[in-house]
Amino acid sequence: MDTSCDQSTLEILPDEILLEVCKYLLCNDVLHSFIGLNYRITRMIAQYRHHLSFHKTSISKFDYLCMNVLPQIGSQIRSLVIDCCYSLLQDRLFFEYFSENMSNVFPNLERISLVAYVHDDLVAFLNALHDLNHLVEIRLYSLFSIQRLQQPALARLLMQANNHRLTTIFLDNHSSTLSFDETDHYRNIVRLCLKLKTLADLPSLFAAVPNVQHLDITIEKRNPSETDNNVILRSSLLHLTHFRLKSVERRWTSEELMALLVQLPIVQCLSLFLYTYDERLVKGDIVLSLLPSAVQQFNYAVYFYSNIISDEDNTIASSWPPSHPVAYFFDNKLFFLHTLPWHFTRLEFSSTLGKMISWQTINANGYDKHTEQVCLFINKNFSLDKALTILSQCRRVSEVIISVTDNSDIVEGTRIKTLSEKEFLLKWSV
To answer: Which residue has the higher pLDDT, 67 or 221?
Structure first.
């Protein structure tokens, strides 16, 4: 009996089903398996040809793609991710194949992302970037620690890469800090995200990027000496409209914050995450009075360390107008306040959450838009049910870190389901 009519092939499936299958595959698997199969399939996987990620690509498969596939589709590639975290030699293999002719092979490349690079390999890669007419963005993830003396030279090479064509540079929070030479100016940079070692590095950064419009800064450490508390900013950022600063390792004063904000005359979207001993920085009427007149959106979070007396929390909360609703909790030492909704990617609760004196009711979408990581530090007094009320709102959370500091009744392996119906198996580190 002829059974050929009962046989099916992959090609009879509609594009929608095939693309759903592709979602379960790595980008390199899609390219290796489907490209060139036929006109329909090649057209269907256009997004995999335009935006390539070599995450978790083996060296043997990467070598095959570099030799046989990338030269054929290079003119179609818009973004490229080279990941050395899982394939330690991936960057050097790519460099070996394309360092001499990158602009010819990838003439329409717009964005490059580099994962887990070390200093020497990054320098070699940046030196190979030239005459790529459309390349305007570089993203660095988990850049290994760069020695302090090497940081200005690397920053200069990064900002000037590809014949000064770059406009956007992003370094994630797992990357090394950078520092800048005050004599250098990079007028091409419009968007910048990076970490600085201390507040003392801020003046040279402001001087280096006079035309920046979007600036995201994390200040990693406390100032090494008290003299750094009097840092003077000499350069105003006259084009900056979006500014975000996270600095939770040093004690900010209202005078310092005022001196900073004066240099941002046209900022429209302002986000601050600070640590302070200054009570003025938790009172809404004072904080809002410091803002530049151009501010249209204000996101704020602050740790305030002090001995708060009874009912003082109500005074602080009432100082914030209805236009800037806040959530807060504290014990007799630490007060944590933030505007709603929560704006930053990391949300952290200390063991003091279990001793909350006051906690405002948080609306249903207070934490659902931006929170990607939640950290809970638990002792026997910790009120887990209150934390779970907030955690259940974190629809986009991808990582939950829980540390247990002493004996607890919590059972290892408890599952928590968020409103997005994702489940996270929480492992305790004692």
So the answer is: 67
3 state DSSP class of 324: coil
Average pLDDT taken over every residue of the chain: 84
Q: What is the pLDDT of residue 378?
A: 67
Contact 117, 144 (CB under 8 A): yes
The more confidently predicted of residues 425 and 344 is 344
C-beta atoms surrounding 197 within 10 Å: 17
In whole angstroms, what is the distance from residue 161 CA to residue 77 CA?
19
Structure-token pair, residue 374: 């939640």
Closest among 87, 47, 33, 30 to 63, alpha carbons compared: 87
Q: How far is CA 361 from CA 315, 327, 328, 370, 389, in A?
A: 17, 7, 9, 19, 10
Rg, the chain, Cα only: 25
3-class secondary structure for 281-320? HHCHHHHHHCCCCCCCEEEEEEEEECCCCCCHHHHHHHCC
pTM confidence score: 0.85
What integer pLDDT is reported at residue 382 of this predicted model?
61
Domain boundaries, the chain: 340-430
- pLDDT tens-digit series, residues 304-335: 988 766 566 678 888 999 999 888 877 667 88
Q: Is the per-residue pLDDT at 371 higher than 70?
A: yes
In 3D space, the residue among 371, 380, 286, 267 whose CA is nearest the CA of residue 324 turns out to be 286
How many CA within 13 A on the CB side of residue 237?
32
Show the CA angle centred on residue 63, arms to residues 33 and 121, nearest 5°: 130
> According to the 3-state scheme, what is the secondary structure of 387-405?
HHHHHCCCCCCCEEEEEEC
Q: Which residues contact 138 (CB under 8 A, 6 or more apart)?
A: 111, 112, 113, 114, 158, 161, 166, 168, 169, 170
| 196, amino acid identity | L
